[in-house]
Amino acid sequence: MIETPIEINDIKKILPHRYPFLLIDRVLSYTLEPEITLTAIKNVTANEPFFQGHFPGEPVMPGVLILESLAQACGVLAHVAQATSVDEGGVYYLVKIDNAKFNRKVIPGDQLLMEVKQTRVMRGMGKYEARVTINGQRTASCEILCSEG
Predict the structure, then answer these.
(1) For residues 34 and 50, what is the distance between their CA atoms, to the nearest angstrom?
(2) Contact present, 13 and 87 (Cβ < 8 Å)
(3) Whose CA is closest to 128, among 85, 81, 63?
(4) For 18-59, how does the pLDDT look when each residue is reduced to its tens digit (9 = 90+)?
(5) What contacts 100, CB < 8 A, 6 or more positions away?
(6) Domains of the chain and CATH, by start
(7) CB within 8 A of 110, min separation 6: which ones?
(8) Catalytic site residues?
């Protein structure tokens, strides 16, 4: 069993992503029974490189990066559901996103609270329900399919 919270140095052992594309700062918790779930956070800061061009004078986190942060949370969940330590396990790839919805802008100073739930595993692929909230407000949601590489 991997202890929580999972801090950034251990997240780097699980995910291959690095700056500027590592989009999880901490895993707060996960469960393996009765459901397979994970809760993680991403602190959105004004010095994120994408804010220089998206959009000058009105910084907004690109929706595709919000979805990527959720996919990374799914990858961590797939890892902890199968591994007994952060040092073992495979790499997981984003295969498909369905039903993506965005309910509010993400701006500097926000903290994304990401909640992902594994709903199915089939042929080395996991299906997940994923959502982001900020201060209790629904921000984004989608269904994600990831594959072990």
Answers:
(1) 38
(2) yes
(3) 81
(4) 999 999 999 999 999 999 999 999 999 999 999 999 999 999
(5) 63, 67, 140, 141, 142
(6) 8-148 (3.10.129.10)
(7) 44, 61, 134
(8) 54
